[in-house]
Model the fold of this input.
Amino acid sequence: MAGQHVPYAAAYRRAIAAIPTGFAFGGPSRAGRNGGEKEARMHQIIFSPAHLRIAAIGGVRVKFAKIVFLVAGIYGLLILTPIYFMEGRIGRDNPPAITHPEYFYGFLGAGLAWQVLFLVLSGDPARYRAMILPSVLEKISYGIALLVLYSQQRLAFSVLAIGSVDWIFAFLFLAAYFTTKSVRASA
Done:
């Protein structure tokens, strides 16, 4: 480590400096005030730069998941909220008119609830990791519906293209799931 510039070196030095002199893992040192060779080796193993590097990478992984869910939540809110005020226009632009508004508004309400969940997930992805897989299912289910409707020629290509963003989020959610460790696993 001498002569190398590594970003975690300062944290490593602070961690070593914080260990009391004569500290032995598992109890008081038998080797006296300065500690023994065995204790010094334990310090190197437990506070090695490799362990600090893994912790830093874990932080990047959590940050990735936070950003993914924050972007997904904000994007969803920006896309779905205006649709609440477009029932009449949708009926005019894409006839026939909406005949069951309860399904229309129910879908929008459920969609908005998922966007709020994504914002909650962005706060602490490791803590709420169990909700990432249902979030993937939410994205995939809409994506599959779009593909089926398009293959039956019941959907415009422009709607399929805009809806394909859900496939991108589904894969990003899976990446966030596999790169984020659960709180139980790390505890």
In short: The chain is about 70% helix and 0% strand. Residues 23-32, 45-57 have pLDDT under 50 and may be disordered. Residues 49-80 form the longest helix (32 residues).
